[in-house]
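Input record (Table S2, row 344):
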Amino acid sequence: MRRCLLSTEPDMRIATVLKGCDVKAIYEMAKRNQVNLDNIIIIGLNCGGTIRPETARIIVREKLGLDPDDVVKEEIDKGKFIVVTKDGEHASVSIDELEEGGRKTSSEKKASAAGRTAAAARSRSRARQTSPAATGALLGEKAGNATFVEVCSEKGANLLDGALKAGAVATEPANPKGIEIRGKVENAMLKLGDRWRERYFGALGEGTERLNKIREQTSRCIKCYSCIENCPICYCIDCSTKKDYLVEPGVIPPPFMFHLIRFAHISDSCVNCGQCEELCPPVEISNSVFLHAIQTDLERLFGFHPGEDMTPPPVLALVEETAREDVLRRREVTRSSTSSDDPG
Ligand code: SF4
Ligand code: SF4
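Output record (iron/sulfur cluster complex):
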Protein backbone atom coordinates (compact mmCIF):
# COMPACT_ATOMS: atom_id res chain seq x y z
CA MET A 1 0.00 0.00 0.00
CA ARG A 2 2.84 2.39 0.88
CA ARG A 3 4.54 1.81 -2.46
CA CYS A 4 1.30 2.32 -4.33
CA LEU A 5 0.35 5.50 -2.46
CA LEU A 6 3.78 7.03 -2.60
CA SER A 7 5.20 6.09 -5.94
CA THR A 8 2.23 5.85 -8.27
CA GLU A 9 -0.79 7.55 -6.73
CA PRO A 10 0.34 10.00 -4.02
CA ASP A 11 -3.01 11.84 -4.09
CA MET A 12 -5.26 8.80 -4.15
CA ARG A 13 -7.84 8.70 -1.36
CA ILE A 14 -8.60 5.31 0.07
CA ALA A 15 -10.54 3.68 2.87
CA THR A 16 -8.98 0.58 4.35
CA VAL A 17 -9.72 -2.02 7.01
CA LEU A 18 -6.66 -2.76 9.13
CA LYS A 19 -5.61 -4.87 12.12
CA GLY A 20 -4.19 -3.11 15.18
CA CYS A 21 -0.52 -3.60 14.21
CA ASP A 22 -1.22 -2.42 10.64
CA VAL A 23 -2.84 0.77 11.95
CA LYS A 24 0.28 1.40 14.03
CA ALA A 25 2.44 0.84 10.97
CA ILE A 26 0.41 3.44 9.03
CA TYR A 27 1.08 6.04 11.75
CA GLU A 28 4.80 5.27 11.76
CA MET A 29 4.84 5.54 7.95
CA ALA A 30 3.02 8.86 8.16
CA LYS A 31 5.66 10.18 10.59
CA ARG A 32 8.24 9.37 7.93
CA ASN A 33 6.18 11.11 5.21
CA GLN A 34 5.52 7.81 3.46
CA VAL A 35 1.74 8.18 3.49
CA ASN A 36 -0.61 11.12 3.93
CA LEU A 37 -3.13 10.40 6.68
CA ASP A 38 -5.50 13.00 5.22
CA ASN A 39 -5.97 10.67 2.24
CA ILE A 40 -6.65 7.52 4.26
CA ILE A 41 -9.77 6.50 6.10
CA ILE A 42 -8.86 3.72 8.52
CA ILE A 43 -11.39 1.31 9.95
CA GLY A 44 -9.75 -0.79 12.62
CA LEU A 45 -10.48 -4.47 12.82
CA ASN A 46 -10.34 -6.04 16.24
CA CYS A 47 -7.96 -8.92 15.86
CA GLY A 48 -7.18 -11.75 18.24
CA GLY A 49 -4.12 -12.73 16.20
CA THR A 50 -3.27 -14.46 12.96
CA ILE A 51 -2.56 -18.11 12.28
CA ARG A 52 -0.46 -19.22 9.33
CA PRO A 53 -2.60 -21.11 6.77
CA GLU A 54 -0.48 -24.26 7.00
CA THR A 55 -0.68 -24.15 10.81
CA ALA A 56 -4.46 -23.70 10.64
CA ARG A 57 -4.75 -26.80 8.44
CA ILE A 58 -2.78 -28.86 10.98
CA ILE A 59 -4.97 -27.61 13.85
CA VAL A 60 -8.17 -28.39 11.95
CA ARG A 61 -6.97 -31.90 11.14
CA GLU A 62 -5.20 -32.82 14.38
CA LYS A 63 -7.07 -30.88 17.07
CA LEU A 64 -10.58 -30.66 15.62
CA GLY A 65 -10.64 -33.94 13.68
CA LEU A 66 -12.00 -32.26 10.54
CA ASP A 67 -10.88 -32.17 6.92
CA PRO A 68 -9.32 -28.71 6.31
CA ASP A 69 -10.75 -28.70 2.78
CA ASP A 70 -14.28 -28.75 4.28
CA VAL A 71 -13.72 -25.54 6.25
CA VAL A 72 -15.48 -22.49 4.78
CA LYS A 73 -15.02 -20.01 7.62
CA GLU A 74 -12.54 -19.51 10.43
CA GLU A 75 -11.89 -16.85 13.04
CA ILE A 76 -10.28 -16.18 16.38
CA ASP A 77 -12.84 -14.90 18.84
CA LYS A 78 -13.27 -14.91 22.61
CA GLY A 79 -9.92 -16.65 23.01
CA LYS A 80 -10.87 -19.50 20.69
CA PHE A 81 -9.97 -20.64 17.20
CA ILE A 82 -13.36 -21.32 15.60
CA VAL A 83 -14.14 -23.00 12.29
CA VAL A 84 -17.34 -23.66 10.35
CA THR A 85 -17.52 -26.43 7.73
CA LYS A 86 -19.46 -26.46 4.48
CA ASP A 87 -22.08 -28.63 6.27
CA GLY A 88 -22.57 -25.95 8.89
CA GLU A 89 -20.70 -27.80 11.63
CA HIS A 90 -19.02 -25.52 14.21
CA ALA A 91 -15.87 -26.59 16.06
CA SER A 92 -13.45 -24.69 18.27
CA VAL A 93 -10.37 -25.03 20.42
CA SER A 94 -9.04 -22.60 23.01
CA ILE A 95 -6.01 -20.56 21.93
CA ASP A 96 -4.53 -21.09 25.37
CA GLU A 97 -4.75 -24.84 25.02
CA LEU A 98 -3.21 -24.73 21.54
CA GLU A 99 -0.30 -22.55 22.47
CA GLU A 100 0.47 -23.75 25.96
CA GLY A 101 1.65 -27.15 24.81
CA GLY A 102 3.29 -26.45 21.49
CA ARG A 103 4.98 -23.08 21.12
CA LYS A 104 8.74 -22.98 21.13
CA THR A 105 10.16 -19.82 22.64
CA SER A 106 13.70 -20.85 21.79
CA SER A 107 12.66 -19.82 18.28
CA GLU A 108 14.86 -22.50 16.84
CA LYS A 109 11.81 -23.56 14.89
CA LYS A 110 8.59 -21.87 13.97
CA ALA A 111 5.67 -22.57 16.23
CA SER A 112 4.47 -25.58 14.17
CA ALA A 113 0.91 -26.42 15.19
CA ALA A 114 1.06 -24.20 18.23
CA GLY A 115 -1.46 -21.58 17.19
CA ARG A 116 -1.05 -17.91 16.36
CA THR A 117 2.14 -16.47 14.91
CA ALA A 118 4.80 -15.58 17.49
CA ALA A 119 4.24 -11.85 16.96
CA ALA A 120 0.46 -12.20 17.36
CA ALA A 121 0.94 -14.10 20.63
CA ARG A 122 3.02 -11.20 22.04
CA SER A 123 0.68 -8.52 20.71
CA ARG A 124 -1.03 -5.88 22.81
CA SER A 125 -2.23 -3.97 19.73
CA ARG A 126 -5.93 -3.33 19.73
CA ALA A 127 -7.71 -1.51 16.91
CA ARG A 128 -9.51 0.81 19.29
CA GLN A 129 -6.19 2.21 20.61
CA THR A 130 -5.44 3.82 17.30
CA SER A 131 -8.28 3.71 14.78
CA PRO A 132 -10.93 6.40 14.23
CA ALA A 133 -13.49 3.59 14.27
CA ALA A 134 -13.01 -0.05 15.22
CA THR A 135 -15.16 -2.99 14.29
CA GLY A 136 -15.43 -6.45 15.73
CA ALA A 137 -17.58 -9.53 16.08
CA LEU A 138 -20.99 -9.09 17.64
CA LEU A 139 -22.18 -11.29 20.46
CA GLY A 140 -25.67 -12.66 21.01
CA GLU A 141 -28.55 -13.10 18.57
CA LYS A 142 -27.15 -10.66 15.98
CA ALA A 143 -23.83 -12.52 15.76
CA GLY A 144 -22.97 -13.15 12.12
CA ASN A 145 -25.56 -10.64 10.84
CA ALA A 146 -24.25 -7.38 12.24
CA THR A 147 -20.97 -5.84 13.34
CA PHE A 148 -19.95 -4.15 16.54
CA VAL A 149 -18.67 -0.65 15.75
CA GLU A 150 -16.77 1.44 18.24
CA VAL A 151 -16.30 5.13 17.45
CA CYS A 152 -12.92 6.16 18.82
CA SER A 153 -12.41 9.72 17.55
CA GLU A 154 -14.10 12.65 15.87
CA LYS A 155 -12.89 11.39 12.51
CA GLY A 156 -14.58 8.07 13.26
CA ALA A 157 -17.79 9.82 14.31
CA ASN A 158 -17.85 11.79 11.04
CA LEU A 159 -17.24 8.59 9.10
CA LEU A 160 -20.15 6.79 10.74
CA ASP A 161 -22.40 9.86 10.38
CA GLY A 162 -21.60 10.02 6.68
CA ALA A 163 -22.34 6.31 6.21
CA LEU A 164 -25.64 6.69 8.08
CA LYS A 165 -26.71 9.72 6.03
CA ALA A 166 -25.83 7.88 2.82
CA GLY A 167 -27.96 4.96 3.94
CA ALA A 168 -24.98 2.63 3.72
CA VAL A 169 -25.43 1.37 7.29
CA ALA A 170 -28.09 1.23 9.97
CA THR A 171 -27.19 1.28 13.64
CA GLU A 172 -28.69 0.59 17.01
CA PRO A 173 -27.24 0.87 20.53
CA ALA A 174 -24.98 -1.96 21.58
CA ASN A 175 -26.21 -4.44 24.13
CA PRO A 176 -24.59 -3.48 27.54
CA LYS A 177 -23.95 -7.15 28.30
CA GLY A 178 -22.11 -7.47 24.98
CA ILE A 179 -19.93 -4.45 25.84
CA GLU A 180 -19.10 -5.99 29.21
CA ILE A 181 -18.15 -9.34 27.66
CA ARG A 182 -16.01 -7.61 25.00
CA GLY A 183 -14.12 -5.80 27.76
CA LYS A 184 -13.43 -9.06 29.58
CA VAL A 185 -12.29 -10.83 26.40
CA GLU A 186 -9.98 -7.94 25.56
CA ASN A 187 -8.42 -7.98 29.03
CA ALA A 188 -7.88 -11.72 28.80
CA MET A 189 -6.15 -11.32 25.41
CA LEU A 190 -3.94 -8.51 26.73
CA LYS A 191 -2.87 -10.68 29.67
CA LEU A 192 -2.10 -13.52 27.27
CA GLY A 193 0.05 -11.09 25.25
CA ASP A 194 1.96 -10.10 28.41
CA ARG A 195 2.54 -13.72 29.29
CA TRP A 196 4.03 -14.51 25.86
CA ARG A 197 6.18 -11.39 25.97
CA GLU A 198 7.65 -12.55 29.24
CA ARG A 199 8.36 -15.97 27.80
CA TYR A 200 9.85 -14.84 24.49
CA PHE A 201 11.90 -12.00 25.92
CA GLY A 202 12.91 -14.13 28.92
CA ALA A 203 14.17 -16.87 26.58
CA LEU A 204 16.19 -14.25 24.69
CA GLY A 205 17.97 -13.17 27.87
CA GLU A 206 19.69 -9.86 28.50
CA GLY A 207 22.95 -8.13 27.57
CA THR A 208 25.72 -10.40 26.26
CA GLU A 209 23.55 -13.49 26.43
CA ARG A 210 20.95 -11.82 24.18
CA LEU A 211 23.62 -10.53 21.82
CA ASN A 212 25.15 -13.99 21.46
CA LYS A 213 21.76 -15.56 20.75
CA ILE A 214 21.02 -12.97 18.09
CA ARG A 215 24.49 -13.45 16.54
CA GLU A 216 24.05 -17.19 16.50
CA GLN A 217 20.67 -17.09 14.78
CA THR A 218 21.56 -14.37 12.30
CA SER A 219 24.63 -16.37 11.25
CA ARG A 220 22.12 -18.40 9.18
CA CYS A 221 21.07 -15.32 7.20
CA ILE A 222 21.25 -15.65 3.41
CA LYS A 223 20.82 -11.90 2.82
CA CYS A 224 17.63 -12.30 0.79
CA TYR A 225 16.33 -8.88 1.97
CA SER A 226 12.84 -10.28 2.57
CA CYS A 227 12.79 -8.89 6.14
CA ILE A 228 13.71 -5.46 4.85
CA GLU A 229 11.39 -5.40 1.86
CA ASN A 230 8.39 -6.49 3.91
CA CYS A 231 8.88 -4.31 6.98
CA PRO A 232 6.41 -1.41 7.01
CA ILE A 233 8.89 0.73 8.93
CA CYS A 234 11.87 0.18 6.56
CA TYR A 235 11.43 2.83 3.91
CA CYS A 236 14.85 4.20 2.84
CA ILE A 237 15.28 4.01 -0.93
CA ASP A 238 19.03 4.26 -0.40
CA CYS A 239 19.27 1.37 2.09
CA SER A 240 22.35 1.44 4.33
CA THR A 241 22.62 -2.36 4.28
CA LYS A 242 23.51 -2.04 0.58
CA LYS A 243 26.39 0.37 1.15
CA ASP A 244 29.75 -1.29 0.60
CA TYR A 245 31.47 0.78 3.28
CA LEU A 246 29.01 -0.53 5.89
CA VAL A 247 28.34 -4.11 4.81
CA GLU A 248 30.97 -5.94 2.81
CA PRO A 249 29.27 -7.09 -0.40
CA GLY A 250 29.21 -10.67 -1.66
CA VAL A 251 29.56 -12.24 1.80
CA ILE A 252 27.02 -14.85 2.98
CA PRO A 253 26.09 -14.85 5.78
CA PRO A 254 26.46 -11.08 5.80
CA PRO A 255 28.53 -9.43 8.51
CA PHE A 256 26.58 -8.81 11.74
CA MET A 257 26.54 -5.12 10.78
CA PHE A 258 23.79 -5.98 8.27
CA HIS A 259 21.43 -6.79 11.16
CA LEU A 260 22.76 -4.07 13.46
CA ILE A 261 21.85 -1.45 10.85
CA ARG A 262 18.29 -2.74 10.80
CA PHE A 263 18.08 -2.77 14.60
CA ALA A 264 19.44 0.78 14.75
CA HIS A 265 17.08 2.10 12.09
CA ILE A 266 13.75 0.69 13.12
CA SER A 267 13.83 -0.95 16.52
CA ASP A 268 12.34 2.16 18.15
CA SER A 269 9.30 1.98 15.88
CA CYS A 270 8.81 -1.75 15.38
CA VAL A 271 5.06 -2.39 15.56
CA ASN A 272 5.48 -6.15 16.03
CA CYS A 273 3.64 -7.06 12.85
CA GLY A 274 5.82 -10.17 12.55
CA GLN A 275 6.40 -9.88 8.79
CA CYS A 276 10.20 -9.98 9.07
CA GLU A 277 9.92 -13.31 10.85
CA GLU A 278 7.05 -14.86 8.92
CA LEU A 279 8.74 -14.05 5.61
CA CYS A 280 12.18 -15.32 6.55
CA PRO A 281 11.22 -18.84 5.60
CA PRO A 282 14.45 -20.33 4.32
CA VAL A 283 16.35 -20.02 7.58
CA GLU A 284 13.69 -19.16 10.19
CA ILE A 285 15.40 -16.35 12.03
CA SER A 286 13.32 -14.85 14.86
CA ASN A 287 13.70 -11.30 13.58
CA SER A 288 10.49 -9.95 15.08
CA VAL A 289 11.36 -11.26 18.54
CA PHE A 290 14.69 -9.40 18.41
CA LEU A 291 13.21 -6.17 17.12
CA HIS A 292 10.19 -6.28 19.41
CA ALA A 293 12.38 -6.97 22.48
CA ILE A 294 14.59 -3.97 21.68
CA GLN A 295 11.53 -1.81 20.99
CA THR A 296 9.95 -2.63 24.35
CA ASP A 297 13.25 -1.82 26.08
CA LEU A 298 13.32 1.56 24.30
CA GLU A 299 9.66 2.07 25.20
CA ARG A 300 10.56 1.56 28.87
CA LEU A 301 13.53 3.92 28.61
CA PHE A 302 11.98 6.75 26.59
CA GLY A 303 8.22 6.23 26.98
CA PHE A 304 7.81 6.21 23.20
CA HIS A 305 4.86 4.07 22.10
CA PRO A 306 5.15 3.48 18.36
CA GLY A 307 2.11 3.89 16.16
CA GLU A 308 -0.36 5.16 18.72
CA ASP A 309 -0.60 8.66 17.29
CA MET A 310 1.44 11.20 15.36
CA THR A 311 3.49 12.48 18.31
CA PRO A 312 6.24 12.43 19.33
CA PRO A 313 8.64 11.64 16.48
CA PRO A 314 10.45 8.29 16.69
CA VAL A 315 13.24 8.30 19.30
CA LEU A 316 15.94 7.49 16.74
CA ALA A 317 14.68 10.14 14.32
CA LEU A 318 16.16 12.73 16.63
CA VAL A 319 19.56 12.00 15.02
CA GLU A 320 19.92 13.71 11.65
CA GLU A 321 20.44 11.18 8.84
CA THR A 322 22.92 13.39 6.97
CA ALA A 323 24.96 14.03 10.12
CA ARG A 324 25.09 10.30 10.82
CA GLU A 325 26.21 9.51 7.28
CA ASP A 326 28.95 12.16 7.42
CA VAL A 327 30.34 10.55 10.57
CA LEU A 328 30.27 7.09 8.96
CA ARG A 329 31.98 8.32 5.79
CA ARG A 330 34.71 10.06 7.83
CA ARG A 331 35.27 6.80 9.71
CA GLU A 332 35.54 4.91 6.41
CA VAL A 333 38.11 7.38 5.07
CA THR A 334 40.14 7.05 8.30
CA ARG A 335 39.95 3.25 8.10
CA SER A 336 41.14 3.13 4.46
CA SER A 337 44.04 5.48 5.12
CA THR A 338 45.03 3.41 8.19
CA SER A 339 44.95 0.16 6.21
CA SER A 340 46.97 1.63 3.30
CA ASP A 341 49.64 2.72 5.82
CA ASP A 342 49.72 -0.78 7.17
CA PRO A 343 52.84 -2.51 5.77
CA GLY A 344 51.45 -5.96 6.55
S1 SF4 B 1 14.67 -12.51 5.68
FE1 SF4 B 1 16.00 -13.79 6.96
S2 SF4 B 1 17.53 -14.61 5.54
FE2 SF4 B 1 16.52 -12.93 4.47
S3 SF4 B 1 17.86 -11.15 4.91
FE3 SF4 B 1 16.26 -11.17 6.48
S4 SF4 B 1 17.17 -12.30 8.21
FE4 SF4 B 1 18.41 -12.75 6.38
S1 SF4 C 1 10.79 -5.09 12.37
FE1 SF4 C 1 9.55 -6.89 11.80
S2 SF4 C 1 7.93 -6.98 13.34
FE2 SF4 C 1 8.84 -4.93 13.45
S3 SF4 C 1 7.59 -3.66 12.09
FE3 SF4 C 1 9.29 -4.42 10.82
S4 SF4 C 1 8.53 -6.32 9.89
FE4 SF4 C 1 7.11 -5.79 11.57
